[in-house]
Amino acid sequence: MNAHSQQSDHPVDYQALAERIRGWGLALGFQAVGITDTDLQGQEHRLQQWLASDRHGTMEWMARHGNKRSRPEDLVPGTLRVISVRLDYRPAEVADSWSVMADGEKAFVSRYALGRDYHKLMRKRLQKLAEKIQSEVGEFGYRALVDSAPVMEKPLAAKAGLGWQGKHTNLLHQQAGSWFFLGELYTDLPLPVDEAGQDHCGSCRRCIDACPTGAITGPYRLDARKCISYLTIEHDGPIPERYRRAMGNRIYGCDDCQLVCPWNKFAQNSEEVDFSPRHELDTPELVALFDWSEQDFLDRLAGSPIRRIGHERWLRNIAVALGNAPSRPNVIQALNRRRDHPSALVREHVRWALAQHDHRQEGGSTR
Fold this sequence. Notes:
This protein has helices at residues 14-27, 41-52, 61-64, 72-75, 97-102, 118-137, 153-159, 206-210, 228-234, 241-247, 256-259, 286-290, 294-300, 310-323, 329-337, 344-361; strands spanning 32-36, 81-88, 108-109, 142-145, 164-165, 171-172, 180-187, 216-218, 221-222, 250-252. It has 367 residues and is α+β, with helices and mostly antiparallel strands. Among the domains are: 14-92 and 113-187, no CATH class; 285-367, Leucine-rich Repeat Variant (Alpha Horseshoe). It has a 4-stranded antiparallel sheet, with helices on both faces. It has a two-stranded parallel ribbon with strand order 3-10. Strand 8 (216-218) and strand 9 form a beta hairpin. Helix 1 (14-27) packs antiparallel against helix 6 and helix 14 (310-323) runs parallel beside helix 16 (344-361). It is elongated and about 80 Å long. The chain starts with 13 loop residues before the first helix and ends in a 6-residue tail after the last helix.
């Protein structure tokens, strides 16, 4: 990152610039903009403990970059400040989550993934924000980041005043809940920093009690290896059998800890058209999704964050949901159509699912 140069001999009023940056960010469609320094020393220790206890599971990339995740100035040399932004994503017109999860023949997809992928949209807006700043101060050092590098985005956002990390470890805001994305602009500008967000979880433990697999092992402690979002998205191997029934019909992600959080009654719906449900993904039929060919998967999920898990994991996840579905002929037939699938991973999960139905038909219970 190169040191910035000014367009004139006049010194920059960084206080005034910070205010303009917030205004530009809001005009670009972000719902909040905050500024913080790069000191994450306390969070670095907690991250190291989390990694040392293997709670990141197979996400080896979490440990790959050493301390660059917790030291922004090591990731992008010259970084002095981080501009953190929030973009709300909850669609206005969407099927009720609990109703979808209660219907065993439907599939539940985490509400952040119903529409188009947010990464490009946010990165373009951050780039435009950087260009606005550049038009004011001249060339300066920056890097726009949206899940594209090792960044502790939630601790940075909390330090920048965008909220606090709740007991489920997601970022929360008193007026916005948690249904939002985060992005960052690393910069070498010595901007004034905002006051950090304060914790307002109090004695509430609804997220801890609601987690289907017990992944929230205590206040502010998450074991990713048990988390349905991790298991259905990040994990590329077999889903441990002990968690399969608890997954229910959640085929991509899990929103339970957000759905029960009292602060989300204040959350605002997004006006972003890109986040509206595509292909009726807010209330799809499991059997229909399971019958998608790989080309169907690629075509229908073009531009979707779901596409990155690939067709094999998609079928793996749906096979588990079909194993938890009512024992109806169309469900059994769909599973049998995939029992000789070329992927050993898919075949194993199909066999498990069929065994669940066999057990029920024999008078047993899998619940």
